[in-house]
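Data availability (excerpt). The following record was deposited with the supplementary files.
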Amino acid sequence: MSFHDGLRNKGRTRADMDDRRKAVESFTGVKLEHAGNCTFDPIVAEKNVENMIGTTQVPLGFVGPIKVNGDHASGEFLVPLATTEGALVASVNRGASIISASGGAEAIIIKDEMTRAPVFRTQGVRDSKRVVDWVDQHMDEVRSAAEATTGHGKLVKVRAFASGRSLFLRFSYDTGDAMGMNMCTIATEAACRLIEEGTDIKLISVSGNMCVDKKPAAINFIDGRGKTVLADVRVPAELVGDKLHTTPEAMVETCYRKNLVGSGMSLSYGSNAHAANMLAALYIATGQDAAQVVEGSMVSTTCEPCDEGVYLSVRLPCLEVGTVGGGTRLPCQSEALSMMGCLGAGKAKKLAEIAAALVLAGELSTLAAQSAGELGKAHKALGR
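Predicted structure:
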């Protein structure tokens, strides 16, 4: 009997989890003492993981209070961050305190659409045009087929991209308070079956990499995916000098030569200091799909002189977060969302605005540290 044969019929109870872990320990010769110390009923995670043998604990810290002046998030928030990178929480916390002392971060959501882009095989370019015309003419039916699979998702639009015999249809959805990737996939599959029947073409893959999911891509950088969020703050010159130990002029030059020139020369899709750091720690803490930090990293950070001192802004074109479903239902992640008042329905946009302010705080602190020549000093003290 193989290793897997002995575990094939194991369920999701704590006893099943313990049996699997013991089998892994026997096979590897490694005692999984800490991984087995699970504080919740494994059944809670039945939709989140297979072959569960325990949990991995990641250190959890917090930053704040950070003041956010958003359309959905208004007030001061403590933001949970799960990370193993020393100095990260301290740096972001410094930025959060400066933002709050400056009157808070302005944060707005300008777009909210999750995408899925299937690829079809057609007979050629004219056939692709025929199919696109059919979809345009039957859009109400396509929308009905997609939305019949979900009580929350709404099909916003379908955009066509053709190359030779490959036809891509980029479906865009409003997914409510769920991040919505699974919702979009199921809805798009239903719409594709209708398109196949109506046009006699072949669906090759429900994901044709024009979505673009979990990969950096220009189309997402420009057009956005998930929530596109903007945030900014004006920091008085005295705070820059007294608390950040630098000058507005030095911060502006650092941002220009690093984020603009450096990112341009490297053809980077992200022109920022380290936006992925904040998003990864927030995603892990709150049960988001951590792999989507790839798209989240495509942040643009700008820094300019202003009458008060220095103006800093961030543009997050792909902030893919939810407050229902997925990992948000797990106990620790639910607690982390609850810390911000972001658990459950009606809270996804609030979470997105807090996330944008969080990224702004991290960018502010790191640009200041680099312009003051203190980045290495901080990591030597806190992160070695």
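Summary of structural features: The mean pLDDT is 94.
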